[in-house]
Amino acid sequence: MTREQLLEQRLATLEQEVARLKANSAHNAMNETRGAQLIRQAEESHADLLARWQRFMQTLDIQGPTLGVKELREKLQAQGLNPDHNLFSREIIAMREERAE
User: Rounded to whole angstroms, what are the CA distances from 80 to 2, 24, 68, 71, 77?
Assistant: First the structure.
């Protein structure tokens, strides 16, 4: 068998394998459950999400680690604010009720 014939045979085998893989991939995609599809898409887009989140945080000039709820409440109390106070929420509710009347 000549080198050219050998290469043609190997190329034909490779093309058949690629076609088989494409067919299997299309078949698997059709059989994929909605949940599995969502998980796969989330995993594929995770790196992009992290990069966009970093750009967003830089845009807002937010730096450093995030605060936990306990630490945030302590900081609010140190500044004289009552974290259990719901005045702001009550004002929003009152405004909605005014508009409804």
Answer: 89, 64, 19, 14, 5
73: burial class by Cβ within 10 Å (0-12, 13-18, 19+)? Answer: middle
CA distance 18 to 5: 20
Domain ranges across the chain: 65-101
Per-residue pLDDT tens over the stretch 52-100: 999 999 999 888 888 888 998 898 889 988 877 887 788 888 888 888 8
pTM assigned to the model = 0.39
Q: CA-CA distance, 95 to 97, in Å (whole number)?
A: 5
Question: Is the Cα dihedral 44, 49, 55, 61 positive or negative?
Answer: negative
